[in-house]
Design a protein that fits this description.
With 111 residues, the protein is α+β, with helices and mostly antiparallel strands. The chain has a single domain, classed as YgaC/TfoX-N like chaperone (Yope Regulator, Chain: A), CATH 3.30.1460.30. It is 37% helix and 24% strand. Strands 1-2-3-5-4 form a five-stranded antiparallel sheet, covered by helices on one side. The longest helix has 16 residues.
Length: 111
């Protein structure tokens, strides 16, 4: 059974994705978004949200937010930025970041 914190974060994630009509949330036990054959956001078992960006954008967010690389199941997810709890107060910014991530993966060669 998922914790209350995880359920709350899942609802928050679902609400963010619902604001983005070009893609939808997938996965039951590991919620994620994907496009063009690439995952570009996911919610891990620790109720942490990670969003994928190009190296340049990732580094800029790590410095400006500030945050770190995202970890899921103990592994560093290269290309993903950990979305800190403080950004939950800025859902419009997070919707923009999700859309930016979607646009990034759409520039990659299809898988």
């Amino acid at each position: 059974m998922a914790s209350d914190k995880w359920q709350e974060m899942l609802q928050f994630y679902d609400d963010l994705v619902a604001e983005c009509p070009r893609f939808e949330r997938k996965g039951k036990t590991m919620p994620y978004t994907s496009a063009n054959g690439y995952m570009f956001s996911l919610l891990n078992k620790d109720a942490e949200l990670g969003i994928r960006f190009s190296s340049e954008v990732q580094n800029a967010y790590i410095e400006s937010i500030p945050t770190t690389l995202y970890k899921s199941y103990g592994a560093i997810m290269h290309g993903y930025v950990l979305i800190p709890e403080t950004l939950r107060k800025e859902p419009k910014k997070l919707v923009g970041m999700l859309n930016e991530s979607y646009e990034y993966v759409m520039t990659l060669p299809p898988k």
